UniProtKB/TrEMBL annotation:
Signal peptide as annotated in the record: 1-23
SUPFAM superfamilies, per the entry: ClpP/crotonase
Organism, as annotated: Fermentimonas caenicola
Alphabetized SMART domains for the sequence: TSPc
Lineage: Bacteria, Pseudomonadati, Bacteroidota, Bacteroidia, Bacteroidales
Protein name as catalogued: Tail specific protease domain-containing protein
CDD domains, per database record: Peptidase_S41_CPP_like
């Protein structure tokens, strides 16, 4: 009997060992991880391997972001993630090697943000270094909230290729379609949009083919424009077939009606450098010589360090002065920022009774930078004065000595444009015409490593807050216009310089006392109104092109040099 029990015991052990080995073989032979799907109902990931073996693991849901993100860490250190935990779908697999690269870059991001970031004392103390660098950067920001944190950060950004970042700041773009636009919903549902052209950039194929201000694009490559596809439709390479529509006067109905006007094929630009000076002209009315300048962003040059844009700007203003211009209309309605040095040069030409001893702005940095800069450069290190020459050159800046300044504004008028408005207000009357400006009182510097093959990222963190000579900097809600005018009231846009343009016409009437005659809204028939403009998309598209940037090119390089000694 004992012998029988012994034989049964041995047999059971052998069976157990054999089964265990088979299970281990199954696990060891499951092969490479091929796909991962996320199930929102069970909050789990299903892992499928090359052998056909599958397994299910629980997801960790991060509800601190919107939408919530689902993640899980695998045994080999890889991470699977799904961007919206409320939905189901195919998840992303991030291998351990990639995560190691992420951690290297993220360490560089956090170290630099700890030194330069305006809100460095607000950085997360325990960030997730395994995130993609762009997500990591976003996760550590002291973020703006209209209600709970109105003074927070809306503007810091990061880019995978620092050379593209530097180009963007100088108006250099790849995959450029050649015109600025806004999207207008074709009806109240906002499921389909038309693009309304704000202006064609000089020197582009779009300008050559007649894609002018005020024209509508109803389709691209035969596709309707939606909130989901507009980025792809307006981006990329090659050619684009634009279906156009224009206002045409109907003699029978005695009004302007939007009508289809055929297709136009244009070439995308793989590389394009936009000149910020769009139009300059002089109006002579009675004893008034009125200078009008359309200036679309602030940049010294296209990145070649020639100062050519600044030199051209000052040449235009010198011409105004030589022709006896005694009033000035500065059109900044589409100008969302740029180089501080260019803003200082422009303000110095326009200010009344210029003195290079007068302060234009003062700068506020975090305590680390403040202590280092005051030690290196003295108590007045943070003051910017009016100048009489373009910085770094011998080119003289004219004294126009204007009695006042008229500025045309919109919701895109931001940062360096507001720097001009705020800086000049203590010295002269600045009359705003149009809509409330965006409200950006802070600036950034560029941080990158040009000799690190493992890290090509560049970032543009907010590092400085600007105030005028009276200490005023509280305009995060924007500057309210003295004369509020919605240029998109009936979606009919006049060419720049046309005196029927409602913003320019108002400025000219204030200067001359003569009323400008504009086309009656009742004579224009459109299937939509300005309430159907997608403000979020319109602003986001300009933010993504980094037109909302104000970068501190006065102290940026010296700050980095001081902090890396």
């Amino acid at each position: 009997m004992k012998r029988t029990y012994f034989i049964l015991l041995v047999f059971s052990l052998l069976l157990l060992i054999n089964t265990s080995c088979n299970d281990n073989d199954k696990i060891n032979d499951k092969g490479e991880l091929e796909t991962v799907t996320y199930d929102a109902g069970t909050k789990t990931f299903k892992l499928t391997y090359s052998s056909g073996y599958t397994e299910t693991i629980n997801a960790i849901i991060n509800n601190q972001v919107d939408p919530p993100v689902a993640t899980a860490t695998l045994e080999d250190g890889s991470i699977v993630t799904f961007e919206n935990a409320n939905n189901s779908g195919k998840a992303e697999i991030i291998t351990s090697d990639v995560i190691s690269d992420y951690k290297y870059v993220n360490g560089w991001i956090y170290d630099n943000m700890s030194v330069y970031y305006l809100w460095n004392d607000k950085l997360s103390k325990s960030p997730n270094y395994s995130l993609n660098p762009e997500d990591f950067f976003e996760s550590i920001l002291y973020k703006y909230n209209k209600t709970s944190n109105p003074d927070g950060d809306r503007f810091s950004w990061i880019q995978e290729d620092y050379t593209e970042l530097l180009g963007n700041l100088s108006g250099v773009a790849s995959h450029e379609i050649g015109f600025e636009y806004i999207l207008v919903g074709t009806d109240a549902t906002l499921k389909q949009y038309y693009a309304l052209v704000l202006y064609a950039m000089h020197g582009t194929d779009a300008e050559l083919k007649g894609i002018n201000r005020g024209r509508f694009i109803t389709k691209i490559n035969g596709q309707n424009i939606t909130a989901d596809n507009y980025k792809n439709l307006f981006g990329g390479t090659g050619t684009k077939k634009l279906s156009m529509a224009d206002f045409v006067y109907n003699e029978t109905e005695k009004r302007y009606i939007l009508q289809s006007s055929g297709d136009v094929t244009i070439n995308m630009h793989n590389y394009f450098a936009e000149n910020p000076i769009y139009l300059d002209t002089i109006y002579t009315v009675a004893n008034n010589k009125i200078g009008y300048l359309v200036y679309n962003f602030f940049a010294r040059d296209n990145g070649d360090k020639s100062n050519n844009y600044d030199k051209e700007l000052i040449s235009k203003l010198s011409n105004f002065k030589s022709k006896g211009v005694n009033e000035m209309v500065l059109d900044l309605r589409y100008n969302s920022g740029g180089a501080v040095s260019s803003a200082i040069a422009l303000a110095s030409a326009l200010v009344k009774n210029r003195s290079t001893k007068n302060v234009l702005t003062t700068s506020q940095y975090n305590s680390i930078l403040h202590n280092a800069l005051i030690k290196e450069e003295g108590a007045n290190y943070n003051k910017d004065y009016f100048i009489d020459k373009i910085i770094g050159t011998t080119v003289a800046i004219p004294e126009m000595n204007l009695p006042r300044l008229y500025v045309l504004t919109s919701g895109w008028t931001a940062s360096a444009s507001e720097f001009i408005i705020n800086g000049l207000k203590p010295y002269m009357d600045v009359i705003l015409i149009g809509e409330t400006t965006y409200g950006k009182n802070v600036g950034s510097i560029t941080i990158y490593e040009d000799d690190d093959p493992k890290n090509k990222w560049g970032m543009q963190p907010i590092v400085v807050k600007f105030a005028n000579s009276l200490g005023f900097s509280d305009f995060t809600a924007g500057f309210t216009p003295d004369y509020e005018i919605d240029e998109f009231e009936n979606l009919y846009l006049y060419s720049f310089g046309d005196t029927n343009d409602p913003l320019l016409g108002k400025a000219l009437s204030l200067i001359t006392g003569q009323t400008s005659f504009t086309r009656s809204a009742s004579a224009i028939s459109t299937p939509f109104r300005s309430t159907q403009i997608n403000e979020k998309i319109s602003v986001d598209s300009r933010e993504k092109s980094h037109r909302f940037e104000m970068y501190d090119d006065i102290r940026g390089e010296s700050i980095r040099n001081i902090m890396t000694k």
